[in-house]
Design brief:
By secondary structure, the chain is mainly α. The chain is built from nine helices and no strands. Belongs to the DedA family.
């Protein structure tokens, strides 16, 4: 019988992990129910425990590339078809905030919403839908990708000394951290919604 820990360890150290991570990050924009954060956390923690700094750099690069490719897909979908992103068109919440700030502060709009659950889908597709020019979208999506990848890779680096390279512990820590980050972002979003002034009709 195959040892699960050995199998996970092999997967976390596999040369295929870097391109697969890029694909996972690319896909979790249009499909946020397939989060890539646990993979990035776990792989970074395992690489740190192995003392493989170049693998951490490669994982960071894969996260940036996947983020940019996924954003390009969402931006194109927003420009070409409202039906593809109809679920992100809301009159309140993240979508409304993004639409109010996209043209005036595109970098702030895309970076600020990137860590929110569903924020990437709402903000990047909205950028395409409102026809945000490429000259404004490109620096905004690059900044968003760099901030998100740095934040997520940094968390994985912090987890490394805790898991001591144990594959099962790395994966478990990855899922726990992903849940904590999502919960914190959702709580912040709810708090901001509660503090929003109510406009009398």
């Amino acid at each position: 019988m195959t040892d699960p820990s050995a199998l996970i360890g092999y997967l976390l150290q596999s040369p295929w992990l870097v391109p697969l991570l890029a694909v996972a990050v690319m896909c979790d924009g249009p499909f946020p129910f397939l989060p890539s954060e646990p993979v990035l956390f776990s792989a970074t923690a395992a690489a740190l425990a192995d003392g493989d700094r170049w693998r951490i750099v490669a994982l960071f690069g894969a996260a940036v590339v996947g983020s940019l490719l996924g954003d390009a897909m969402l931006y194109g979908a927003g420009r070409s078809s409202h039906s593809v992103v109809r679920g992100t068109r809301r009159s309140d919440g993240t979508g409304a905030w993004v639409r109010r700030h996209l043209h005036r502060r595109p970098v702030a709009a895309l970076v600020a919403t990137r860590l929110l659950p569903g924020g990437r889908l709402a903000s990047v597709s909205a950028a395409g839908r409102v026809r945000l020019p490429l000259r404004a979208f490109l620096p905004a999506t690059v900044a968003s990708a760099l901030v998100w990848s740095t934040w997520m890779t940094g968390i994985g680096v912090l987890v490394g000394p805790i898991t001591h390279g144990d594959p099962l512990m790395s994966v478990l820590a990855g899922f726990v951290l992903a849940a904590l980050v999502a919960s914190a972002a959702a709580a912040a979003k709810a708090l901001l919604r509660l503090r929003r002034p109510v406009v009398a009709v």
